Each structure stands twice: as C-alpha cells, then as structure tokens.
Amino acid sequence: MTSNNRQSATGQAARTCQFKMVLLGESAVGKSSLVLRFVKGQFHEYQESTIGAAFLTQTVSVDDITVKLELWDTAGQERYHSLAPMYYRGAQAAIVVYDITNADTFSRAKVWVKELQRQAAPNIVIALAGNKADLTAKRQVEVADAQSYAEENGLIFMETSAKTSMNVNDIFMAIAKKLPKTQDTSNANGGRGRSNDGQSITVSRSSTQRVPGNEGGCCGGK
Amino acid sequence: MVDFIISRKLTNSDELISRLESLPSYGNLIQNTDEPALFDDEQEPQSGLIDFIRRNSTAEPSTIDSPNIIGTEDSIEDDITTNETASTPITATNSADELRNQENDDNYELHLNLLKSRVKHLFILSENGKPVFTRYGDEDQLVTLMGVMQTLVSFAEIAQSSRLNYLKAGPCRIAFLHREPFVFVLVTHTNEHSMCLLQQLTYVYHQIISTLTLSRIKQKFNAQPNFDIRRWLSNAERKLLHNIIDMYEHDLGMLMTSARCLILPANIRGQIGQTVAQTIRGQQDMLFAIILAHGQLVSIARLRNYHLHPSDLYLLINLVNSTDAFKGVESWVPVCLPRFDPGGCFHAHISYLDDSCDVCLVLLTVNPEHFQILSDYKQVIHEKLRKQNLTIQIKLALDKTRLLTDEIACSDLRYFAYKSRGLSQYISSKLLQPYVTNEQHVRLFELIRYVYGRLHNRNHNLKIVYLKAEYESLLAWLAPGFELHVVFSPYATLETVTQCTDRILSYIKREESQLFIIRCEYF
C-alpha cells in the first residue's frame, strides 16, 4: 500500500480523491481496533482507550482512482460527545460502530446515525458496523434487526471483526466505492488542506480543476 | 534515631552553613541569569486567558466561557512533631498494587482491612458527599466513609466558617482540599509535611480539571447537583489520576515544581529548538511546542510573553505517559492547563517523531480548528529533525544512562537532586542501591519530602536542614539561586558532606549547559 502524499498527487496522471471519514460509537465497541486493522493490519486484544481523537490516513484504489481516506477515530467516552461535531463536520463518510454483544451500544449507534442525518453534511455516506462478530456466543443484537434498520435508513451495513479481520477491508472499500468521485463544492472543506481554518473559500465549480492551495475533498483530475 | 541540625539552633549547624557558604563553587552558582525564564513558577493562573488569545488572533467567536474561580492558597500550620521517627519504613507500600487489584471484591470486611492498612489513601468526593474516586478499593463500598468526610468538611465551613485543612488522628494524618465542586482527602501514616500532602492533592485536582475542564464540570453540577461525575471518568481518566498520584511519589520535580531536562549537548538542543521555532514562526494561535522523551524535556519553544508552568508540564507528561493510544497516530486532544487558565482549553496535537515512539512532540494551540495546520507543522518538524540527524541524537542521549553520582566520585554520596531556581529546572542522579526497589524509592522520597517541608516552612525561615536518619543522612540547602537535596550514607562526616557538596556544585556549574535549557526559543 503506497501512501499518497501531495507531491505525488500533483505529479500523477491518475485521479486522486481525498475524503474525510469519521468513526463514531459507544466506548469499547472497537472503533480504534477497526481502524488499526484497516490501516496497519494490527490487532491488540487490549487496545487502550482513545483520548480525544486519533487521526490516520489510508490510501485505497477504487476503479483506477486513488482514494485517500483521512480517518478520524474518535473517543467513545461520554465526556467527549460534545466534541463530536468538530470531527464529523465536513466529513464525507462515517462509520457508526456498535458491539454485537451489547444491545446498549446498538441503541447508542442509532442515536449517532440520527445525529449525523440531522447535523452532518447532507450527502454523507454512513455505514453501520456490528463489530466483534467473532463473539457469536455472546450475541445480543440480531443480524436481521441491524440489517433492517440499516435498510430503512439507507446505510451500508456489515458485521465486522477487527480480531479476525472479517469484513474490515470490505466495509471501508464499500464506503470508498459509494463516495461520489466527482463531487464538488459541498465537501471542499473536508480535506487535509488548510482550507478549514474557519475562513471561507471560493471553490471552482469545475470538478476536474483543483483549487489552488486547496486539495481538500474534491477529486483533482491533474 | 533522629538528630536534627537546624540552622542557628546548634553550634554544629552554624559550622555546616559557614562551610557550605564559603565553598568556591557556591559563589559561582548563586547569580541568576539575565535570560528570560523558560518557565515561570510564580505565574498566577489567569482565567479567560485562552479566550483572550483566541479572540485576538482570529475573528472567530469564542465558545468557551471562563468563570473566574481560583482558590486562594491557605497556609497550613506546621504541626509535625519532630520527635517522631522520620524514617518510618513504609511496610505496606508493597501490597499496594495487590490491593488495587481487589477493586471488584465485594467483601466488606476486606474493604475495612484495606482502609486500616498503612497505604497512602486518596479519596475524591463531590461536595454533596458522592464518591468519585478512591486510590485503593472500590468507591462504591465507601459511601458511608465519604459521607463522614463530607460532613467534617462542611461542618468546619458552616459552624466554624473556616476551612478544614488537616487532621491528626493517632498515627494517621488526614489532609483535606476543598475545591469546588470536589473534596480531596489524603490519609497517610508517614511523616510527610502537610504542605506536600496538600501539593499532591492539588496535582490530583489539576489532573481532573485538565481532562474535564473546570467550566464544564461547574456547568454540569449547576444544572444537575446530583450528577455522578464518574460517568465522565472512564478507565483512561482514572489511569491518569492513579498515575499522577504515583508520579508524585516517584518524582522530585513535581515536589520542587521544576522540569527535568534530557541531558543533551547545548548545540544539539539549540538546533532542535531553532528548527521547531522556525517552522512555527508567525503563528498567533499556537502557544507552545514541546518535545518530550521518556518524560524528560528535550526542548520547548513558545510564543513570546506566555509561560508554561512546570506543574502544567507535568500534566502533559502524565497524559503522554499514561497511554499507548498516542503511538503510531496523530492525536487531537482538548486539554486544560489549570496554571495557565483554569477556565479555558488548549487543543493538543500529540504525535511521536520516531518509529519506536520514544520522542514525542506536543503542539498546543488555542484554536480547535487548527488540526491541519499543526499536522503540517508536525510533518515539517519531523522531516527537518530527521534530516539533520537530530532525532537520532535525542535517542542516543536517551540510551546513554548517566548516573551522575559516579561523575562526582564521592563514596558517601548516594543521591542528589539540584534545582536551579532561576530556570525552574532540576537534575537528579540516578537512584542506585539501596534505593532500586520501589519500596525503598518511595521511602527515600518520603524522607526527602519531610526534609523539604521543614526547609520550606515559612515560619522557620531555614537555609539548611541536615537530617541524620537511621539508614541515611540528608542535606537540604536552600540558596538564593538553587535548591539542593543530597543523600549520604549515615556515616558521612561533616568533612565529607562539605567536600561532596562542593563537587556537586562544581560539576553542575561545569555541565550546566547540557543539564538545563538555558535559552528560550520563540516562534
């Protein structure tokens, strides 16, 4: 997996897209474990609690397009909830994670979905991940329930296991595929550029033109 | 067997003072440098300062309100009786960790025994008596006890209209700290000075507001006086509390409110500091850029006119040291530094500069939207330090264990800690036999804190305390430019003490430039 930096992005002929993705969910459902499995291929049985939020990037390839995902792995503890908007603001994708062995975390996931639908960008791609799928003996949330909830709300849904890596890449890839590769202005401030420091930026209407000094969010066809 | 030689009381002590003060190395060290201070340990916290900086640097509306709540320090009467054995061995420290593991045990009997044991207990409760935290055991089992503590505190405040600071009950000392909306209680069997007990409690208080911020806590308690704050204290936050309590017992820097620097050649440190400062120059929202390695300060660059208080630095060190979650990722963490501004909140960009996660970069800004900017700075700093081989230099310095005692070569010398009062930084030798076990380490530092308490007692105005205890002799010396604590073997003679102190001071004068950060770096 080659990491994609800005220099190579400008030099490449292939299209490069950059998206901001946020992981939300109750504490200890496995958000960090999913991200670490996806980005580094690692799994720690005793993953330490995230403090604040952790930022990681991963580059994947979808239909000849290089997609750079900027992942915001947020802390699940209650005291951080008020900070969540800071992370999902400007995000083009979100994974809401729950733990299949804990019904409360599923209820909490629904609250997150509702909050995203109300507060986040209108075209945000949301996925629901029922993590810890390897612990079937302790299951409290039925697949069918989560499936039907996801369908009603137009979410991508998969049960995942960061431990066995089941569906981990798949759910990230499913989102990457669903992300609009020709999107324009609405997501301009989602990327890693200096665009989202509170100032407003005029963004070119043309989706194939990169805005000078702003590689955030849109697909620069250079 | 305890024998005190306190200045001007015994003829012997006069001799010690005059001998020490006539040392040639003493004259070299007392001058304060003209350099602006890196730290300011006299700095008073300013509520609303972060808000002010944010408003001035950008036109963004501020969202964090900043109530003006800073408690005044109450001075505490020194009532430690001097005829008690100062070197009481701490028999129970050993079992402390085992005891903590029994948190889930429901056995009430066990809890009662735990409370009676001679470990140093620390409790936090809310003003209305709700349990928040206990160092050992399970706070749910301590509802009654915490109720009693709350009653004692509020009785003193209502009936006597004064604060309850300190209680002695037989061999037990109990220190109280009431900081709205919490009450902090410490119970100990040792001879530590009440000043130190209060200081330890204050660190715990600062740790709580550092993670939760005072304004948020107050808001919540105002709206919901019965709120169970434990909902905000998950395992990660509890670990921070446990660690700050432990750290205080193992680190003299927290006691002396001074930072400890990694020993590094001055030119290397200079290059690191300049690289960081040059990268960031021009930013108005970023206040501090700190490089830490294994809890030691490598470099600090800052915006002119803003100081970091050493006790706030310890909160950052505790945050970085308490978790592996910062390793391999870039983290964005809201953190309150109470000695800077108890009402506001910094946003810290925390990341490591090397693959083995030894060298940590902490960037502090007042602007919550500036993650990208700080992340870019990090990339640049990372690259520059790597290209100039400076990251490797830091790692080499880390690998090089400096005992310091062997460089001074004095057979009766066991340990020393030297604080430069002008720089608010300290250096200490490595603990060797017999202090390599945790039990002995804690015991020695308790003894040093006892001596420290005597030395700093405002009523006595002492310059030197010399304590001959059962297993060691301790010298504490408060001079205009420095503070020195030296541990000798119990058989050290006056001659040895003087000679050895001379060597320590000469050594520090000689090596000063690599032991301390002398120059400030500004963005």
TrEMBL record, chain A:
**Signal sequence coordinates:** none
Using the UniProt record, name the top-level EC class of this enzyme in a single word: hydrolase
Instruction: Please name the GO terms of the biological process aspect recorded for this protein, alphabetically.
Output: protein transport
Q: Which terms are listed as keywords in the entry?
A: Endosome, GTP-binding, Hydrolase, Lipoprotein, Nucleotide-binding, Prenylation, Protein transport, Transport
Q: Does the keyword Repressor apply?
A: no
User: What CDD domains does the database record attribute to this sequence?
Assistant: Rab5_related
Q: Where is the composition biased (Polar residues)?
A: 196-211
What EC designation does it have? Answer: 3.6.5.2
Q: Which GO terms describe its molecular function?
A: G protein activity; GTP binding
- Provide the residue span(s) of the region labelled Disordered: 182-222
Name its cellular compartments. Early endosome
One GO cellular component this record assigns the protein to is: early endosome
Query: Which Pfam families does this chain map to?
Result: Ras
Spell out the reaction equation it catalyses: GTP + H2O = GDP + phosphate + H(+)
Entry's family note = Belongs to the small GTPase superfamily. Rab family.
Q: What is this protein called?
A: small monomeric GTPase
Automatic annotation (TrEMBL), chain B:
| Top-level taxon of origin | Eukaryota
Q: Which GO terms describe its cellular component?
A: Mon1-Ccz1 complex
- The UniProt record lists the FUZ/MON1/HPS1 second Longin domain at 285-382
FUZ/MON1/HPS1 third Longin domain ranges (all copies): 413-512
Limits of the FUZ/MON1/HPS1 first Longin domain: 120-238
Q: What are the recorded Gene Ontology BP terms?
A: protein targeting to vacuole; vesicle-mediated transport
Briefly state the protein's biological role.
Answer: Plays an important role in membrane trafficking through the secretory apparatus.
- Could you say which protein family the record assigns here? Belongs to the MON1/SAND family.
- Stated name of the protein: Vacuolar fusion protein MON1 homolog
Q: Which organism is it from?
A: Rotaria magnacalcarata
